[in-house]
Amino acid sequence: MRIWLDVNKAPEGYIGLDTVNKVKNCLIYYEQKNEPIEEISIAAEIEYNRQADGGNITKLLEFLSNRNYPIHIHTEDNSIRLLVKTYGLTMIN
Question: What pLDDT, in 10s, does the model give residues 57-77?
Fold first, then answer.
């Protein structure tokens, strides 16, 4: 299962979600079903657009910090890439 966190439509093969809370709930659901999580792809703009529903990207990365899912940042934002590394998460291209 692959998650696409963005306000724009997800590409084929991804579950498109537009808030941090939706991503958290989706992950919990699939974890309980023991479904593999292949990738979480994040748009840095969520940091600015959706803070009201679950917090910003930092809140998501905190949530992910004790999980080992590959993270992809699909927008150009080096500050988010640095945060991913700060939380010790695996970043993929």
Answer: 888 899 999 898 999 988 777
